[in-house]
């Protein structure tokens, strides 16, 4: 039984932004059972053992800390149309690096998630991002937020 499940499955675009550093890897089992699976059950409309999808689309955006350079700190997976494919993809993520950093590239991950929503092009459905992290983002000035001369 899914807690607070709607009467009928909810069609949505769901992106899991997952920090793929070693620090978060220590908690992926708890994150999987307490956040990923309940989210998938909610949007699937029931237990994950029920086959097939319901029209929801899932993507995964992983991000790392700056110590992964020269490789890219962001990776995308999907789109997936069934919860089982999402769980299989999460199991294959390598949680490495981040030991030399106390922050991670969350800003870049959110920018990538927004680009994924645009690429999916399903504006008629609701869009959701679930952030699974343990490190704060790097400070980044996005423009327009601080008065001129005050940054």
Automatic annotation (TrEMBL):
Gene Ontology biological process terms, A to Z: positive regulation of transcription by RNA polymerase II
Source superkingdom: Eukaryota
Domain Mediator of RNA polymerase II transcription subunit 25 von Willebrand factor type A: 10-139
Transmembrane segments: none
GO cellular component: mediator complex; transcription regulator complex
InterPro entries: Mediator_Med25_VWA
Pfam families from the UniProt entry: Med25_VWA
Family to which this protein belongs: Belongs to the Mediator complex subunit 25 family.
Name of the protein: Mediator of RNA polymerase II transcription subunit 25
